[in-house]
């Protein structure tokens, strides 16, 4: 059993051609993977409890991918066992006027999870080197004038430094790219149109953006190569089967949190001596 998604190489030489969106990570089908996913979701719940109690580390989970890639569904399923008190989900949309007046990392910085919490970014500051790169007309005027290659290189550096500072401050950064095939996206968008309760998720832009499919893939590939670092590498999720991406995300989260070997804080020594006396008193009152 594999279950773990591929780590994008940190040498800047990865290629999306080597990543099959329909890969099932060693599992035959959804039924075969059910037990592992269930077990990981239960494990995640316990690990989150210690994460909250110990408050030594925070976890930032970044979800990137095209429309219909399964980001929303992954949040709904993989995080279903988590205690909502310790989780925040932030969906990054087209920036507001206020957000555009700030450096692009600002809105991400104010949405970061604190130590003890898991923060999920449904899209993120990576949009500022992806969608904005494909559509430079979205840039604020001063930046629109700059030489673009310099601009993106500079942003990659800023993002890498931003993430390094997070990791150095005990915020673990886990980045997932949902690698969806063009065909499967068409099927999912079609399903959205066929089902009236899913119409709200549909946007005409989803269809027009498909014309830029290969540009997006190229820009994603460059971004993965420029920002997969030893401190915050990218995971590439095969996204054509939702159960596979769910399985892979849960696997990475469980392994990463387990590796921290977190423990519940113990009572301070002066309180430990009082433990029996307090219990005696409470027993009388119970
Ligand atoms: P959705 O995730 O379907 O709700 O759509 C959100 C939309 O906001 C997507 O089309 C994103 O590309 C867009 N978006 C997110 N961040 C930015 C950004 N920094 N600049 C421009 N568009 C963005
Ligand atoms: Mg959308």
Structural class: alpha/beta
Strand content: 5-15%
- Count of DSSP helices? 13
Domain module tally:
1
Count the strands? 6
Question: Which CATH class?
Answer: Alpha Beta
Shape: globular
Give the rounded overall mean pLDDT.
96
Low-confidence parts, pLDDT < 50 over ≥5 residues?
Answer: none
- Rounded Rg: 21 Å
- Give the full name of the CATH homologous superfamily: P-loop containing nucleotide triphosphate hydrolases
The hetero compounds bound to this protein are: adenosine monophosphate, magnesium ion
Largest sheet, in brief, is: 6 strands, mixed
CATH architectural arrangement: 3-Layer(aba) Sandwich
CATH topology: Rossmann fold
Which strand order spans the largest sheet, edge to edge or round the barrel?
Answer: 1-6-5-2-4-3
Distance between the termini: 50 Å
List the helices and strands in order. EHEHEHHEHHHEHHHEHHH
Write the SSE topology.
Blueprint: E1 6-7, H1 30-54, E2 58-65, H2 71-78, E3 87-91, H3 97-101, H4 106-109, E4 118-122, H5 131-134, H6 141-144, H7 148-168, E5 171-179, H8 182-194, H9 204-208, H10 213-227, E6 234-238, H11 242-259, H12 269-272, H13 275-285
Parallel strand pairs: 2-4, 2-5, 3-4, 5-6
Antiparallel strand pairs: 1-6
Bound molecules: adenosine monophosphate and magnesium ion (MG).
How would you describe this protein?
- This protein has 286 residues and is of the alpha/beta class.
- Helix 1 packs parallel to helix 11 (242-259) and helix 2 packs across helix 11.
- A 6-stranded mixed β-sheet has the order 1-6-5-2-4-3, with helices on both faces.
- Helix content is 48%, strand content 12%.
- It is globular.
- The model has no long low-confidence stretch (mean pLDDT 96).
- The longest helix has 25 residues, at 30-54.
- It has a single domain, classed as Rossmann fold.
């Amino acid at each position: 059993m594999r279950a773990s998604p591929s780590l994008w190489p940190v040498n800047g030489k990865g290629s999306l051609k080597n990543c099959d969106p329909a890969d099932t990570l060693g599992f035959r089908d959804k039924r075969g993977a059910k037990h592992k996913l269930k077990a990981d979701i239960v494990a995640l719940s316990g690990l989150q409890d210690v994460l909250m109690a110990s408050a030594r580390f925070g976890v930032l989970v970044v979800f990137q991918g095209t429309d219909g890639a399964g980001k929303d569904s992954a949040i709904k399923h993989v995080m279903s066992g988590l205690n909502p008190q310790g989780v925040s989900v932030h969906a990054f949309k087209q920036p507001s006027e206020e957000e555009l007046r700030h450096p692009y990392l600002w809105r991400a910085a104010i949405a970061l999870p604190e130590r003890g919490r898991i923060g999920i970014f449904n899209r993120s500051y990576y949009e500022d080197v992806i969608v904005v790169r494909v559509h430079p007309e979205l840039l604020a005027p001063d930046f629109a004038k700059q030489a673009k290659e310099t601009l993106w290189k500079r942003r990659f550096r800023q993002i890498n430094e931003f993430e390094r500072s997070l990791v150095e401050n005990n915020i673990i950064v886990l980045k997932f790219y949902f690698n969806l095939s063009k065909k499967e996206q068409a099927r999912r968008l079609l399903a959205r149109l066929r089902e009236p309760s899913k119409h709200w998720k549909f946007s005409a832009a989803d269809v027009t953006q498909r014309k830029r499919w290969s540009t997006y893939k190229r820009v994603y590939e460059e971004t993965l190569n420029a920002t997969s670092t030893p401190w915050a590498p990218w995971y590439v999720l095969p996204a054509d089967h939702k159960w596979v991406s769910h399985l892979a995300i849960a696997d990475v989260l469980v392994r990463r949190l387990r590796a921290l070997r977190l423990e519940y804080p113990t009572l301070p020594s002066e309180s430990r001596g009082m433990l029996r006396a307090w219990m005696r008193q409470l027993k009388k009152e119970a």
